[in-house]
Design the sequence.
């Protein structure tokens, strides 16, 4: 859980820090071309990004097994030594049992039981419950799983393996398929061949509720069966094979993050009203997101873990494509504007300030002028604190330079207060 949260924080930290770090210098170098609040907004994005990255370091540096060190000495929960691997032997089979206590706190982890039998394999295999998501991704062609021909096994278990040929050779043994099913019926969620061990993993294991005297011995027997008479070689040479899908995955992540950075244009070329900009970005977002999903699925498809890479990319892509679509529409609307800029001098009829809550309070200043667009009575603009102090409603004026916009969304080139 900590690793997943750390990756989540890393992705969003990079996006926010990049957008804030790129946008803040542009606004400071060209303050007249953006709203006064833009600098604050970019600075806030950069701070949020830094916080996310700091959280990433904290989460990814957590101990791999939760709860270790929670008990002093060799205390036991039931018959299990807490947080410490314990070597055992049964019927000549050497195995290791490790019970991990639940970890409380901000990133809690449930208790878990791990039983391990040493065995060397040329590649890895991972057996887990076949979820609805696994089935859907197989049916649409994103994921491709090795099938054994055993209906009961293929329906209940999803097999992840970098080498399809090795998985086929392994699954050809009916006893091994039966052993995996038996381990799952005992209560283990995941069964793995890691390259050095055969491991059964039971998250949420409670010694008082789930244990019985023959549990670990029966588990060791089944794992020993998985480790017996294994295929000696990997015909696909998975560890040495170049993984082109990993390259595509990195490229797709970079594209999504860089697309999100185009949000800078929405601050450099702000529209007079936000809603028309958002509504104009919706078709681009829908079409672009669907196209991105199809292309990424096509490039990543063909392996048993393709959907494991595709899913987080699409979840993060919702945010990235939303931000990027708004920025792209704002850039096209302003940079391709065919009409001349229009200067407007409008009387300031009101002013107000708003202070944010929290420890680091910031104040945003607004002035109100009569609207010139149909459907609006007044329009509100942000101004700097110095300009706000010099404003006298009814006497001061706001000078605006605007463009009609390529997409018909009026945008703001610059503004200034005339006291």
Sequence:
């Amino acid at each position: 859980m900590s690793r997943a949260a750390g990756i989540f924080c890393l992705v969003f930290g990079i996006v926010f820090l990049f957008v804030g770090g790129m946008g803040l210098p542009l606004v400071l170098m060209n303050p007249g071309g953006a709203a006064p609040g833009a600098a604050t907004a970019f600075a806030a994005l950069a701070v949020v990004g830094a916080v996310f990255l700091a959280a990433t370091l904290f989460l990814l540096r957590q101990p791999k097994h939760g709860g270790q060190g929670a008990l002093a000495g060799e205390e036991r929960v039931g018959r299990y030594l807490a947080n410490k691997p314990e070597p055992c032997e049964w019927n000549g089979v050497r195995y290791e049992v490790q019970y991990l206590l639940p970890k409380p706190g901000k990133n809690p982890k449930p208790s878990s039981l791990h039983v391990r039998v040493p065995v060397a394999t040329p590649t890895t295999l991972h057996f887990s419950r076949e979820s609805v998501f696994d089935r859907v991704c197989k049916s649409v062609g994103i994921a491709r799983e090795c099938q054994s021909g055993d209906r009961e096994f293929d329906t209940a278990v999803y097999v992840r393996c970098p080498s399809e040929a090795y998985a086929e050779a392994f699954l050809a043994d009916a006893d091994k398929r039966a052993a995996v099913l038996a381990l799952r019926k005992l209560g283990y969620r995941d069964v793995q061949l890691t390259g050095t061990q055969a491991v059964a993993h039971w998250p949420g294991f409670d010694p008082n509720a789930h244990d019985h005297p023959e549990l670990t011995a029966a588990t060791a027997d089944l794992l020993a069966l998985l480790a017996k008479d294994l295929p000696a070689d990997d015909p696909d040479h998975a560890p040495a094979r170049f993984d082109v899908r990993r390259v595509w995955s990195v490229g797709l992540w970079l594209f999504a993050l860089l697309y999100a950075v185009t949000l800078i244009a929405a601050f450099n070329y702000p529209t007079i009203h936000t809603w028309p900009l958002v509504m104009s970005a919706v078709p681009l977002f829908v079409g672009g997101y669907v196209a991105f999903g199809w292309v990424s699925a096509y490039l990543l498809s063909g392996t048993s873990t393709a959907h494991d890479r595709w899913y987080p990319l699409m979840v993060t892509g919702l945010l990235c494509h939303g931000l990027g679509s708004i920025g792209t529409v704002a850039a096209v609307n302003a940079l391709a504007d065919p009409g001349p800029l229009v200067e407007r001098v409008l009387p300031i009829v009101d002013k107000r300030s708003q202070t944010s809550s929290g420890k680091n309070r910031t104040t945003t200043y607004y002035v109100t002028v009569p609207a010139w667009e149909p459907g609006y009575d007044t329009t509100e603009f942000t101004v700097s604190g110095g300009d706000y102090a010099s404003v006298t409603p009814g006497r001061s004026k706001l000078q605006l330079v605007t463009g009609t916009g390529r997409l018909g969304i009026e945008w703001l080139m610059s503004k200034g207060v005339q006291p």
